[in-house]
Design goal:
By secondary structure, this protein is an alpha/beta fold. The protein contains 15 helices and 21 strands. A seven-stranded mixed β-sheet has the order 14-15-16-13-12-18-19, with helices on both faces. A five-stranded parallel β-sheet has the order 9-8-7-10-11, sandwiched between helices. The radius of gyration is 24 Å and the shape is globular.
Amino acid sequence: MPEAPVEAPTFRLFIAGRWVDGVSGETFDSVNPADIRDVVGRFQAGTAADVAMAIRAADDALPAWKATPAPKRGEILYRFGALMAEHKERLARAMTREMGKVLAEARGDVQEGIDIAFLMAGEGRRMFGDTVPSELPDKWAMSIRQPIGVAGIVTPWNFPIAIPCWKLMPALVTGNTVVFKPSSDSPHCATLLVELMDEAGFPPGTINLITGGGAEVGDAIVENPDVNVISFTGSSATGRGIAERAGRRLKRLSLELGGKNAVVVLRDADLDLAVDGILWSAFGTTGQRCTACSRVIADRPVADELVARLEARTRALRLGPGLDEAVDVGPLVNAAAVDKVERYVAIGRREGDLVTGGERGSGVGLEHGHFYRPTIFAGVAPMATIAQDEIFGPVLSVVPVDGYDEAMTAANQVRYGLSASIFTRDVTTAFRAMRDFETGIVYVNAGTTGAETHLPFGGWKDTGNGHREAGHAALDTFTEWKAVYVDYSGRLQRAQIDNQPG
């Protein structure tokens, strides 16, 4: 007899240190994008009422957490990082099953979470301010960081461990409490993360998890007056809407939004190295990265050879479920993502020359998943739609140009400014590119992906609103500066007056 189907587990919200059912009793399913018959789990469809309870819990926990010495807060972050390292393989496999990226990338995603946990744990003993001379005698002057309050953390599905950790770790080590809303495409990863945070010893109410839709949960977080700071990663359109609503309440807001990232390949480039960097950047995570390379700006003397090499290598990429270690490219996250890619490929057929791909994945092992073949268009104009819009899928446009100046103009002629790279053997040109790229991240002789946790991550223009994640700059999102003056002269001293002649 055939085995009975395994009932998918039901997961709960985490509020005030307890796992609880949502107020509405409604749930939604998270499914495996490589095989939609595989239900990962059922998750609570959170409501504004759930959000209100989570915010109350976070607000109640805030005084004690703020009063906890920062080095002690850091010790809990260290324990959490160690738990992630211990459970790395389990987390990676759960991630691949839920959102589709190949297992090697999922392991890297978890490792990034581990790295940022350890980095921010160390900030518990640093968290520098400034001590500076006063302009008056017998007076001490310094600045310190203090937490803002309750932080609303809203994260996407494409890096379901790393990006939450980018936000949660600096928020918590600086003394804020958190209400965390993950994407509805990756609630299981968020649940596993919070389970480990609870095990690490974060006090009840310090971290609260609410799953559910953006309109129900995300909007309630943004609109609640008791949420003092919001950190959001997602589309530029959604980010603008959040900015408008947060701005009315003068909330601190950090936005990490879209990208349309370019790799510039000049005539003196190492083409073998360039092809390696482009393929990893364009088709890693199936192109579903804000740092993905979706444009190659190629110097005409090498453009044809570069396209030929890219075509040969791309055709050899294996498409399939990410848990198969032999697979190079996994599924897109859901059916809507496939439809979006398909719409842009139709536009691309009018705007460029289809080199390879341009169709949904089919065949044995692909029939129940959201697969699309890695796609390349050549001969694309710099201002073409497929060279301007963020597609968020495995679609690469090759834009031919004449020389460095034209390449730089094309690279910067988009509304985003996250990441860019250049392949050249000339050190002078490399330094010009470091200066000229209008992006928050620049790579020389590497692809557009691969940010490390100890440097700031973020971009210019429509990519965000000026804040940065990772590195010590991440502390700026979640802290207020306070200037402190101690006058031990025993008399009133007036700055800018008593130390001036006349």
